[in-house]
Amino acid sequence: MSTDRRRAVVYLYTQTGQLREVAEAFVRPLHDRDWQIRWVVVTPRVPFPFPWSVRRFFGVFPDAVNPRATVDLVEPADGFASAPDELVILAYQVWYLAPALPVRSLLARHPGSVRDRDVVTVIGCRNMWYSAAREMRGLLAAAGARSVSVVAATDTRAQAVTFVTTLGWLLTGRREPFAWFGRAGIGATELDRVAAVGARFAATGVCGADAAPVVAPLAAADLLAGSAFRTWSRVVRGAERHGAAARAASLVTFVAGLGAGIVVGLPAIAVASALGGARFAAAVRERVIT
Fold it and tell me: Is 224 exposed, middle or buried (0-12, 13-18, 19+ CB in 10 A)?
């Protein structure tokens, strides 16, 4: 990719504001090198709630994982199209191991935002971004874009800690520390790492292999769960034809299965990773990056 590009457009959808922090960390070094940065906020016509209620949080699951589901977006005054000389920086959240529904809608309904453009995707999530990145590559290809690199920022603390803090943040809207848990979300050290990736990209046009570190056990769990989620999405959508009670029952079953998968599946994958060592890690990484 040419390093003389000096314009970029950032398409961003964020509920909590965390993804904006990640995108700004990546973009700041570009701005410091005199890039012109344009921001386009992706806004659903019917907003998704934040904080989420439990009912809405699980209720959005079938559409979040359905690759054909989209929502109406509020079109900006200048439209969604990017300029021919703009690098596209597409910042998105991960919903149920898939690209957030508003960003998927942007690509499906407004492909001119990325068509014939170089695209750097910037992800901010708890820790599982791998299935979403694989799906995003397909969405970008379908829209006629050229995917350049993936930058992923995660909450790097212990899984048990981030499960509690992230879920609490999503359901209550409170991010600050409580009890012995720290502040929810992506920390300052991770934002500094993303800024370093941005500085490398600004200087060389390359993000580097460490832009989206692959943690093999998490990636394996993500890819397996992503496949299961797509199956469950079809089950729930099928149940909808039989009424609200059938849909609710299928969602309850999904949530129960999700809990069992976390309790049983994650430790089993950790054991497999330990036993498989470098071979396991290489196999998982190949699945993530291809």
Answer: middle
Residues in the chain: 290
Q: Which residue has the tokens 């993000």?
A: 207
CA distances from 126 to 130, 186, 189, 266, 277 (A): 12, 8, 15, 15, 24
Distance CA(76)–CA(1), nearest Å, equals 29
- Reading the block at residue 290, the tokens are 């291809």
Distance CA 279, CA 290 (A): 17
Spatial separation of the C-alpha atoms in residues 133 and 285, rounded to whole Å: 13
User: What's the token pair of residue 52?
Assistant: 């989420």
Which pLDDT tens digits describe the chain residue by residue (290 residues)? 544 558 999 999 999 999 999 999 999 999 999 999 999 999 999 999 999 999 899 999 999 999 899 999 999 988 999 999 999 999 999 999 999 999 999 999 999 999 999 999 999 999 999 999 999 999 999 999 988 899 999 999 988 899 899 999 999 999 998 888 889 999 999 999 999 999 999 999 999 988 999 988 888 889 888 888 888 888 888 888 888 888 888 888 888 877 777 766 667 777 777 778 888 778 787 777 65
Residue 205 DSSP one-character state: S
Rg of the Cα trace of the chain?
19
Nearest C-alpha neighbor of 66 from the set 128, 108, 114: 108
pTM: 0.89
As a 3-state breakdown, the chain gives helix, strand, coil percent values, each rounded to 5, of 55, 15, 30
Q: CA 9: distance to chain centroid?
A: 18
